[in-house]
Amino acid sequence: GQNIDQPTEMTATEGAIVQINCTYQTSGFNGLFWYQQHAGEAPTFLSYNVLDGLEEKGRFSSFLSRSKGYSYLLLKELQMKDSASYLCAVMDSNYQLIWGAGTKLIIKP
Amino acid sequence: DTAVSQTPKYLVTQMGNDKSIKCEQNLGHDTMYWYKQDSKKFLKIMFSYNNKELIINETVPNRFSPKSPDKAHLNLHINSLELGDSAVYFCASSHEGRSTDTQYFGPGTRLTVL
Lengths: 109, 114
Hints:
By secondary structure, chain A is mostly beta strands. Chain A is 0% helix and 57% strand. In chain A, strand 7 and strand 8 form a beta hairpin.
Protein backbone atom coordinates (compact mmCIF):
# COMPACT_ATOMS: atom_id res chain seq x y z
CA GLY A 1 0.00 0.00 0.00
CA GLN A 2 0.89 3.63 -0.16
CA ASN A 3 2.06 5.33 2.98
CA ILE A 4 3.22 8.76 4.09
CA ASP A 5 4.66 9.11 7.60
CA GLN A 6 5.33 12.30 9.52
CA PRO A 7 5.39 13.14 13.24
CA THR A 8 2.04 14.01 14.73
CA GLU A 9 3.18 17.04 16.67
CA MET A 10 6.31 19.10 17.28
CA THR A 11 7.06 22.03 19.56
CA ALA A 12 9.66 24.74 18.93
CA THR A 13 10.62 28.15 20.26
CA GLU A 14 10.12 31.46 18.50
CA GLY A 15 13.26 32.43 16.61
CA ALA A 16 14.60 28.88 16.50
CA ILE A 17 14.89 26.35 13.65
CA VAL A 18 12.73 23.24 13.26
CA GLN A 19 12.93 20.30 10.85
CA ILE A 20 9.80 18.31 10.00
CA ASN A 21 10.53 14.92 8.48
CA CYS A 22 8.45 12.92 6.02
CA THR A 23 9.03 9.38 4.77
CA TYR A 24 7.01 7.83 1.99
CA GLN A 25 6.28 4.59 0.17
CA THR A 26 4.23 5.08 -2.95
CA SER A 27 3.56 3.41 -6.28
CA GLY A 28 5.68 5.66 -8.43
CA PHE A 29 6.88 9.16 -7.75
CA ASN A 30 6.11 12.39 -9.56
CA GLY A 31 7.17 14.85 -6.90
CA LEU A 32 6.68 15.73 -3.26
CA PHE A 33 4.74 18.71 -1.96
CA TRP A 34 4.64 20.50 1.37
CA TYR A 35 1.50 22.40 2.34
CA GLN A 36 0.76 24.58 5.37
CA GLN A 37 -2.67 24.43 7.00
CA HIS A 38 -3.71 26.81 9.76
CA ALA A 39 -6.49 25.58 12.02
CA GLY A 40 -9.86 25.89 10.33
CA GLU A 41 -8.36 26.99 7.03
CA ALA A 42 -7.49 25.42 3.69
CA PRO A 43 -4.05 23.98 2.92
CA THR A 44 -1.75 26.40 1.08
CA PHE A 45 1.21 25.43 -1.08
CA LEU A 46 4.73 25.82 0.34
CA SER A 47 7.13 23.83 -1.83
CA TYR A 48 7.62 21.18 -4.48
CA ASN A 49 10.59 18.81 -4.93
CA VAL A 50 11.05 16.31 -7.72
CA LEU A 51 14.87 16.12 -7.87
CA ASP A 52 17.18 15.22 -5.00
CA GLY A 53 18.53 18.12 -3.02
CA LEU A 54 17.55 21.23 -1.18
CA GLU A 55 15.13 23.89 -2.41
CA GLU A 56 15.28 27.15 -0.49
CA LYS A 57 12.50 29.71 -0.41
CA GLY A 58 12.99 32.45 2.16
CA ARG A 59 12.73 31.10 5.69
CA PHE A 60 11.50 27.74 4.41
CA SER A 61 13.59 25.03 2.74
CA SER A 62 12.61 21.57 1.58
CA PHE A 63 14.92 18.60 0.99
CA LEU A 64 14.35 15.40 -0.96
CA SER A 65 16.15 12.07 -1.20
CA ARG A 66 14.31 9.82 -3.63
CA SER A 67 16.52 6.80 -2.95
CA LYS A 68 15.65 6.98 0.75
CA GLY A 69 11.99 7.94 0.27
CA TYR A 70 12.62 10.87 2.56
CA SER A 71 11.98 14.58 2.71
CA TYR A 72 12.16 17.30 5.30
CA LEU A 73 10.82 20.82 5.64
CA LEU A 74 13.15 23.22 7.43
CA LEU A 75 11.72 26.36 8.99
CA LYS A 76 14.15 29.04 10.17
CA GLU A 77 13.67 32.09 12.37
CA LEU A 78 10.36 30.74 13.59
CA GLN A 79 7.52 33.17 14.10
CA MET A 80 4.33 32.70 16.07
CA LYS A 81 2.35 32.76 12.82
CA ASP A 82 4.19 29.58 11.76
CA SER A 83 2.05 27.64 14.23
CA ALA A 84 0.09 25.37 11.89
CA SER A 85 -0.07 21.87 10.53
CA TYR A 86 2.42 20.97 7.82
CA LEU A 87 1.25 18.38 5.32
CA CYS A 88 3.55 16.23 3.22
CA ALA A 89 2.04 14.88 -0.01
CA VAL A 90 3.49 12.70 -2.75
CA MET A 91 2.21 12.52 -6.31
CA ASP A 92 2.17 8.88 -7.39
CA SER A 93 2.47 7.30 -10.84
CA ASN A 94 -1.22 8.04 -11.53
CA TYR A 95 -0.67 11.72 -10.70
CA GLN A 96 -2.79 11.35 -7.58
CA LEU A 97 -1.66 13.18 -4.45
CA ILE A 98 -1.18 10.88 -1.47
CA TRP A 99 -1.32 12.88 1.75
CA GLY A 100 0.27 12.43 5.15
CA ALA A 101 -1.77 13.21 8.25
CA GLY A 102 0.21 16.37 8.87
CA THR A 103 2.52 17.56 11.63
CA LYS A 104 1.07 20.05 14.06
CA LEU A 105 3.77 22.59 14.86
CA ILE A 106 3.41 24.54 18.11
CA ILE A 107 5.55 27.65 18.50
CA LYS A 108 6.24 28.89 22.03
CA PRO A 109 7.47 32.40 22.88
CA ASP B 1 -11.04 37.90 -5.68
CA THR B 2 -11.16 34.40 -4.26
CA ALA B 3 -9.44 31.85 -6.50
CA VAL B 4 -11.35 28.77 -5.32
CA SER B 5 -14.62 29.35 -3.46
CA GLN B 6 -17.03 26.95 -1.79
CA THR B 7 -20.51 27.35 -0.40
CA PRO B 8 -21.71 26.88 2.21
CA LYS B 9 -18.87 27.19 4.69
CA TYR B 10 -20.87 25.36 7.36
CA LEU B 11 -23.62 22.81 6.81
CA VAL B 12 -25.59 21.13 9.59
CA THR B 13 -28.21 18.57 8.62
CA GLN B 14 -30.07 15.48 9.72
CA MET B 15 -29.21 11.89 8.83
CA GLY B 16 -30.94 10.72 5.69
CA ASN B 17 -31.08 14.14 4.04
CA ASP B 18 -29.63 15.00 0.62
CA LYS B 19 -27.32 18.00 0.36
CA SER B 20 -25.03 19.74 -2.10
CA ILE B 21 -21.82 21.70 -1.75
CA LYS B 22 -20.85 24.09 -4.53
CA CYS B 23 -17.34 24.87 -5.76
CA GLU B 24 -16.16 27.46 -8.24
CA GLN B 25 -12.67 28.37 -9.42
CA ASN B 26 -11.74 31.48 -11.40
CA LEU B 27 -8.16 30.43 -12.17
CA GLY B 28 -8.92 28.98 -15.59
CA HIS B 29 -7.78 25.57 -14.38
CA ASP B 30 -8.71 22.40 -16.22
CA THR B 31 -8.89 20.00 -13.29
CA MET B 32 -10.88 20.12 -10.08
CA TYR B 33 -10.91 17.88 -7.02
CA TRP B 34 -12.92 17.04 -3.97
CA TYR B 35 -11.20 16.00 -0.74
CA LYS B 36 -12.55 14.84 2.60
CA GLN B 37 -10.58 15.73 5.73
CA ASP B 38 -11.69 13.72 8.72
CA SER B 39 -11.17 14.31 12.42
CA LYS B 40 -7.70 12.77 12.21
CA LYS B 41 -6.80 15.41 9.62
CA PHE B 42 -6.10 12.99 6.78
CA LEU B 43 -6.89 14.52 3.41
CA LYS B 44 -8.49 11.83 1.25
CA ILE B 45 -9.08 12.35 -2.43
CA MET B 46 -12.67 11.64 -3.43
CA PHE B 47 -12.80 12.72 -7.06
CA SER B 48 -10.67 14.41 -9.64
CA TYR B 49 -12.32 15.72 -12.79
CA ASN B 50 -11.45 17.55 -15.95
CA ASN B 51 -13.47 18.03 -19.07
CA LYS B 52 -12.37 14.64 -20.30
CA GLU B 53 -12.13 12.32 -17.38
CA LEU B 54 -13.68 11.64 -14.00
CA ILE B 55 -11.48 9.67 -11.65
CA ILE B 56 -13.30 8.25 -8.68
CA ASN B 57 -11.66 6.94 -5.55
CA GLU B 58 -13.14 3.45 -5.33
CA THR B 59 -13.58 3.76 -1.58
CA VAL B 60 -16.06 6.62 -1.96
CA PRO B 61 -19.69 5.47 -1.48
CA ASN B 62 -21.93 5.97 -4.50
CA ARG B 63 -24.07 8.27 -2.36
CA PHE B 64 -21.47 10.88 -3.29
CA SER B 65 -21.57 12.24 -6.82
CA PRO B 66 -19.77 15.13 -8.49
CA LYS B 67 -21.61 17.33 -10.97
CA SER B 68 -19.79 19.72 -13.29
CA PRO B 69 -21.98 22.16 -15.23
CA ASP B 70 -18.88 23.76 -16.74
CA LYS B 71 -15.10 23.84 -16.40
CA ALA B 72 -15.17 26.37 -13.57
CA HIS B 73 -17.58 24.47 -11.34
CA LEU B 74 -17.56 21.09 -9.62
CA ASN B 75 -20.39 20.55 -7.17
CA LEU B 76 -20.64 17.67 -4.72
CA HIS B 77 -24.00 16.00 -4.15
CA ILE B 78 -24.49 13.71 -1.19
CA ASN B 79 -27.55 11.49 -0.84
CA SER B 80 -28.86 9.81 2.33
CA LEU B 81 -26.35 11.47 4.64
CA GLU B 82 -24.84 9.36 7.42
CA LEU B 83 -23.18 10.30 10.69
CA GLY B 84 -19.80 9.22 9.31
CA ASP B 85 -20.06 11.80 6.56
CA SER B 86 -19.34 14.53 9.11
CA ALA B 87 -16.03 16.08 8.06
CA VAL B 88 -14.54 19.07 6.31
CA TYR B 89 -14.79 18.86 2.52
CA PHE B 90 -12.27 20.76 0.43
CA CYS B 91 -12.52 21.60 -3.22
CA ALA B 92 -9.27 22.20 -5.11
CA SER B 93 -8.12 22.94 -8.64
CA SER B 94 -4.96 22.69 -10.69
CA HIS B 95 -3.91 23.74 -14.16
CA GLU B 96 -3.76 20.21 -15.50
CA GLY B 97 -4.62 16.96 -13.78
CA ARG B 98 -1.89 14.88 -15.34
CA SER B 99 1.04 16.98 -14.27
CA THR B 100 2.78 18.06 -11.13
CA ASP B 101 0.91 21.33 -10.91
CA THR B 102 0.18 22.87 -7.55
CA GLN B 103 -3.33 22.37 -6.26
CA TYR B 104 -5.15 25.41 -4.93
CA PHE B 105 -7.68 24.76 -2.22
CA GLY B 106 -11.01 26.33 -1.38
CA PRO B 107 -11.78 27.39 2.22
CA GLY B 108 -13.56 24.13 3.04
CA THR B 109 -17.10 23.20 4.03
CA ARG B 110 -17.61 21.81 7.51
CA LEU B 111 -20.43 19.25 7.29
CA THR B 112 -22.07 18.07 10.50
CA VAL B 113 -24.62 15.27 10.30
CA LEU B 114 -26.85 14.91 13.35
